[in-house]
Structures are given as structure tokens and as C-alpha cells.
Amino acid sequence: MKKKILCLLVFALILFSAASMAYANTPIKLIFNGQELETDVPPLLADGRVLVPVRVISEALGVDIEWDSKQNAVLINAEKNKSEDLRISNLERALAPEEPLEAVNSWAKGVKTRNGALQYAVMSPELREEYYDELSEGWSTGVSSPWVDSYEITERGVEDGNYKFEVTFTYTDSTKNTFTETQFVTVQKFEDHWFVANINKVDVSGEITEIFSDDGELTGIFVENPQAEKGPYDKAKISIIPETKIFKGYTNQELSPDDLEKGMKVEVSFHGPVLMIYPVQGGAEVIRVF
Hints:
Structural class: alpha+beta
């Protein structure tokens, strides 16, 4: 029995050693912002630490590096990177809109030209934080086809000092087909300038044709509009979720789910992913009742 246990222990030790050797022989990858960096000297695992070439890391971070043979030292200089940040900051300050319409027009122009940096420059601090990951991916937005051919801005009122705009983008492609997409934009004043503070894409608009409830509590609505005047969908099943906000028209006056009735005209923005079946189904982030 002892001999059998000893054999099993030896066998387990051999397997562990083989696995450790295989793991140790696996090349270590260097990933920066989701992209693998090519190195002339591969990263090395030594004494429980990973050693990587400092030049590759420094260049990825946008800082200067050089070898000083007299001091026998590696010199890393981040002044260039700081200077670049200062230049961008000053440029954004120069672009800061002085009027509400200027803010929404600059943002819409950024969408049309696929310029993520311009969109970011006219966003409020909170909105920048929300959109940074999306916009900073190459600072280019949208796709090459279909593209935004034009846009139209309509002011929808002022409430609590905030300006509300409806921006309708007209898309086209090489076949000359067109379709529109509508976004509801709120512009707010921060210190002496105006910035885009909120963006809601209108995913579906139309008439409430059906109400869904569970134990007397309204849980969803069905919206239909054969013309699909705003948004890409002509009909949708909308769920009322904890994140759903319901407003009276273009105001900030909030309504409750119980205020929703068949026959009402609404505009709906989805919250998160939707179930791409026909008709589309998803939770509502914003419902505007007209």
C-alpha cells in the first residue's frame, strides 16, 4: 500500500514538473491597451517577477528614452508627453462653445466627420467619462458606409437653463439609399461655456398600441409606427425596467409607468443591448410622451 502511494506521489510530481516546465516555456505576451506589442527581447519571468524591455513600454506611453553611457543609466523623459497633454488641453479650451447651438452643432459635425476628438471636446466632464472608452478607440467613430450625408438641428426648448435639441442625421451609401437617425441632445452651461451634457438616441417612435402588466403593475408597452419616422424600427416591444425614465414631451417633468396609455405618441431610447428579433425587444432608458 505504501509502495502504491509512493508511486502515485512520484507520478503526480512528474506531472506537476512537466506542467511547470510547459508553462515556463510559454512565451509571455506584452499587451498594451488591448494590442500586443512586438519586442526585440521577449519578457522574462525571473524570481517571481516579469521583466520587460523598458524601451517598448516607454514608447507605448509616448515618452522619450535614451541610454547615457557616461552615467551608465537609462534616461526616461516624459516632458514631451506632458507638453502634448498641455497642447490638447489648450486646444480644447479654445474650442469650448460660447453658445448652446454652437455646442450641439460642433458635436453633430464631429459625428458627421467621424471625429471622436471633436465630439469629446464639446462634452461635459461627466459625459466625457461615460464616452471615453468608446471614443478613444482610435478617436474615430461610425463606419465608412453608410455615412452621414447631412444633419438637421431643431431646438426643442429650454428648461432649468438647459437647452434641448433634436438632431436628425441623414445617412446614405454608394447605392444612394438613405435613412435617418434622431438623437435628443441636452446642452448645459459649465462655468462660462456650453457643453453637451446628455445624448439619447431615439430608437423607436410611434403610438402605444398595447399595454403589458403583471399583477396590476405596468411592465411594458408595444409601440408601432409603419413610417418609422424616427429610429430604425417600425415597431418594438418595450420593457419598463428600473433604469427607465419617463418624461412629458421634451421637458424634465417625470411621469410614472401608470401614466402610459394606449394611443399615446412616444419616443423611446433603449437601455443597453436589445433582442434582435422582429419586432425588436428591449428595456427602455428614456420614454418621452407627447
